[in-house]
Amino acid sequence: MTETKTKIDGMEQMNFYPKSLDKRKLHYCPGCGHGVAHRMVAEAIDEAGLNDTTVGIASVGCSVFSYDYFNLDFIQAPHGRAPAVATGVKRVNPDAFVFTYQGDGDLAAIGTSEFIWAAQRGEKITIIFINNGIYGMTGGQMAPTTLVGWKVTTAQKGRDPAHSGMPMKVSELVASLPGSAFVARTSLHNPANAAKTKKAIKRAVECQVKGLGLSLVEILSNCNTNWGMDPVRALKRIEDEMVPYYPLGVYKDVLADKDEK
Are 85 and 127 in contact (CB under 8 A)? Predict the structure, then answer.
């Protein structure tokens, strides 16, 4: 990380900026969680000393330009296909650290078969999954993770489970597959949970470095624009509505299991 010094109210402050993250201005809506998640991923890569050996796979969605924000080698994948691209990169370059950065529409809808089979096979990649319960970039349509009753452009009276089924719980699904090594669901709705998100990302990195299988960190985040809320209300919605249906925690950790033995 690079270090800078600034003065606030006459007091010198130390600021650290991840080497793996570019300093250009982000295009995300004000209050969006993508910027926070980007920094946490970059810090975890820096702290593991993987900056020169990392390959990121950008998805399609609001994060489509993530390759502009990381100082890392990046590949743009077709919609939903990031785990397949990551699989190819990792297999031909097993010493690289390979991660995908995907939203719920990209991963859980168009890319359902990709992440399921990557986890089933135990591909040694890391998936960073941003779950805001909606299609962000394309106009607020219902995603597989949209909660029951949430009003979206394609379900203007609210998601009806009799018509659309129940929201998909990705972490529980991936944790049940034999090839997954680490699976956690975290959140960005307050500082304490943001800190847990960083810890989970570091653990996911560690699992890949040790060649243990696929790791996935699901991060509950907000979409202020398509939710029609200011950032404060949107963060409260995560706590009040998303967390009860999507419980936070570590769902699988083979490293912890090895330590216990």
Answer: no
